[in-house]
Specification:
- By secondary structure, this protein is mainly beta.
- It is built from six helices and 22 strands.
- It folds into two domains: 84 residues, membrane protein fhac (Ubiquitin-like (UB roll), Roll), CATH 3.10.20.310; 356 residues, membrane protein fhac: a member of the omp85/tpsb transporter family (Porin).
Length: 474
């Protein structure tokens, strides 16, 4: 009797499990969708995991129907921000039970660039155009291999001769670890030049040239680690060893170049960067915001003979907003503060170097601390468009996208130097401002060609030309 009861219980339990396992999954509510798969086309080089890493949802996710279109658009922007694709398009196939397949099609860029170098060596294009000289041109060869092995790795090798010699070897490996959120990069570069900006007078760089010897040389080796915990945030730590040296003549002309008449500046440098970027584009943003914080230490006490240890702290804010149809607004602000104010010229790079004030292209403002704010009102003169070039058979180049924007510009800046050396540099320790009009032509392969007409605080006017990516290095 006990055996019969046991068999009945066993059969009932097995029948129950069979019924449960054979039941359909609970129905998906009408306001939700289940992403069954992501079907990718066009990625002949790029690995599938590199693309999936940038999507805001992955196979198996359940999302609200209202979030589908915004999520696809955000994913498209994320993929374009990799600078690996010229075009990215999404679609969806719908199936019974509120399940869908996401269809992703990409057009990959050309990744291997053995590019001849023929460029000017001045701080900006406007400076070169005011006084063009063939002796200030660079030439050579640059091999840049983006998306190396299809894993978004970057291999960079450069040999540049002429006005500013440079030799570079760099490798970057992203998407390390089980979650693909770690990256490592290593680099070595050597730069040498016969002509050097050895001081600043009347707010303009003063140069010395020695055709027989190098006036300034710099060797820089670094290793960097990046952690990307989320799609839009990054932490980076980078350690450098930097070796700068100048000729004896430069040290005599300006003993303050490295300080105390030194001809060599060897130091370790370590920096940390946190970046949160949720803009629609890193190349030419129109909507979204970003924040970047950077701190770096010059001198770690390992090399004792150089006395100028220093901390630098930088913060940058980006704000971009669409105001109305074709009208956009941007406000970008950056500030830097240093702990050591009595530093030599090499550590006093204020404005006019990496950051330019509109209408001040001819000038540099040296100082330890600075603040700059740029306000831009944009009108979309030509909406983003594309066309095909019939006589080019390589698809990475045959389809071109472009847009044109008219800009109203306004800049304000302040550079601080408690210990100015030359009283003729009267732009330091005072507010500078400018305004102007500009036009930007935005096209593929991250190229932005700009022309500006501006007036600065002193009533100086002029046209200024740029072939660059606005704020990309900020």
């Amino acid at each position: 009797m006990i055996r019969v009861k046991f068999m009945l219980v066993f059969m009932f339990a097995g029948w129950s499990l069979l019924c449960i396992s054979g039941q359909d999954h609970p129905p998906v509510p009408d306001h939700q969708l289940v992403i069954r798969d992501v079907v990718i086309e066009g990625n002949k080089v790029t690995r599938r995991n590199i693309l999936l890493r940038e999507l805001v949802f992955v196979p198996g996710d359940t999302i609200n129907k209202m979030d589908l279109i915004p999520g696809l658009e955000r994913s498209r922007e994320n993929l374009l921000n990799l600078s690996l694709f010229n075009f990215v398009t999404f679609d969806a196939n719908h199936y019974p039970g509120n399940t869908i397949d996401i269809l992703l099609e990409v057009q990959e860029r050309w990744y291997i660039w053995p590019t001849p170098i023929f460029e000017h060596g001045e701080r900006n294009l406007s400076t070169f155009l005011r006084e063009p000289r063939w002796s200030r041109l660079n030439y050579g060869m640059w091999l840049k291999w983006n998306n190396f092995r299809g894993r978004n790795e970057m291999l960079n090798a450069k040999i540049r001769l002429g006005y500013k010699e440079q030799y570079v070897l760099q490798y970057e490996k992203p998407n390390l670890g089980a979650d693909e959120n770690h990256a490592l990069s290593v680099s070595y570069s050597l730069s040498r030049q016969h002509r050097v900006n050895f001081t600043t007078q009347e707010n303009q760089p003063v140069y010395f040239r020695d055709d027989d010897n190098y006036s300034l040389s710099t060797a820089d080796a670094f290793v960097a680690y990046t952690y990307r915990p989320q799609l839009y945030s990054r932490h980076r730590i980078r350690a450098h060893f930097v070796d700068d040296w100048i000729s004896d003549t430069v040290a005599r002309l300006n003993p303050d170049f490295f300080g105390n008449g030194y001809t060599r500046y060897q130091h370790f440098k370590i920096d940390y960067v946190f970046q949160y970027d949720i803009r629609d584009s890193r190349i030419y943003p129109l909507e979204g915001h970003a924040f970047k914080f950077k701190t770096q230490r010059f001198g770690l006490g390992i090399i004792d003979e150089y006395p100028y240890g220093n901390w630098e702290f930088e913060s940058t804010f980006f704000y971009h907003k669409k105001l109305a149809n074709r009208f956009y607004f941007a406000d970008v602000a950056k500030g830097r503060v240093t702990t050591n104010k009595e530093v030599p010229l090499i550590l006093k790079k204020g404005l006019g170097y990496a950051e330019n004030l509109t209408g001040y292209d001819a000038f540099v403002i040296d100082g330890t601390d600075y603040f700059i704010n740029k306000v831009i009102f944009k009108y979309q003169l030509v909406k983003p468009s594309k066309f095909s070039i019939p006589f080019i058979n390589i698809k990475q180049f045959s389809r071109v996208h472009y847009a044109i924007y008219l800009n109203l510009l306004g800049d304000v800046a302040y550079v601080n130097d408690p210990f100015p050396r030359d009283p003729s540099n009267n732009m330091v320790n005072s507010w500078q401002y400018s305004a102007g009009l500009g036009i930007d032509f935005v096209t593929y392969y991250d190229k932005v060609i700009g022309v500006e007409y501006a007036v600065n605080r002193y009533g100086m006017t002029g046209f200024f030309f740029r072939v660059t990516t606005p704020f990309f290095e900020w």
